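User: Just a sanity check before I run the rest of the batch. Below are the structure tokens for the first item. I only need the designed sequence back.
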């Protein structure tokens, strides 16, 4: 659900703007701890808000803001926060690491396959913003495979392990290093511009992570 919502929001918002609304999830994770009657430290809540402020400074203020795009991106952050909270409470010695990632990928692949088939049958009745289809070329399948391997073997498994070790709140806050990484990769390899606003936003997010 999370990637479907986030990727759909890119049709209405610039990717940087959508990422900002998606990265509301650290605050939602901390607040969700209150709902689950966890011990939520004031410092964790302060750091989550500070992270959000830092990420807010990373976006291009000239980008258009579409209400539907905001709703999609924000909802993707909510669903991801729910995933993190559930993950932190999941303890099963037999289903962890690669095995857990495998089951998640398998279930997601089956669900996405049937969603693609459903879209093909109902494409005239479905909003084009939620267009879901299988790759149509060999290059498309190779790109999907490479993307899946990086996500499943890299990001998902490392994040799961980290969440088990340090808990949902710290994992959510530290994961806000992701947009900073993407910005500096863009500066190094895609000739994007480093501005004082981006430096300030990155610094605030890093300080929150250190705290």
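Assistant: Here's the designed sequence for the first item:
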């Amino acid at each position: 659900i999370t990637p479907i919502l986030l990727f759909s929001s890119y049709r209405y918002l610039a990717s940087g703007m959508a990422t900002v609304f998606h990265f509301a999830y650290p605050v939602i994770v901390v607040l969700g701890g209150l709902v689950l009657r966890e011990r939520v430290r004031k410092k964790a809540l302060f750091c989550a808000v500070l992270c959000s402020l830092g990420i807010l400074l990373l976006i291009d203020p000239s980008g258009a803001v579409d209400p539907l795009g905001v709703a999609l991106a924000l909802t993707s952050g909510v669903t991801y926060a729910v995933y993190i909270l559930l993950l932190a409470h999941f303890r099963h010695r037999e289903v962890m690491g690669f095995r857990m990632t495998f089951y998640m990928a398998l279930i997601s692949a089956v669900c996405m396959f049937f969603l693609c088939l459903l879209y093909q049958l109902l494409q005239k009745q479905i909003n084009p913003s939620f267009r879901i289809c299988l790759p149509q070329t060999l290059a498309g399948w190779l790109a999907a495979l490479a993307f899946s391997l990086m996500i499943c073997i890299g990001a998902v498994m490392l994040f799961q392990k980290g969440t088990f070790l340090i808990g949902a709140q710290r994992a959510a806050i530290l994961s806000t290093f992701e947009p900073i990484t993407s910005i500096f990769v863009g500066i190094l390899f895609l000739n994007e511009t480093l501005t004082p606003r981006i430096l300030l936003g990155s610094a605030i997010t890093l300080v929150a992570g250190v705290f």
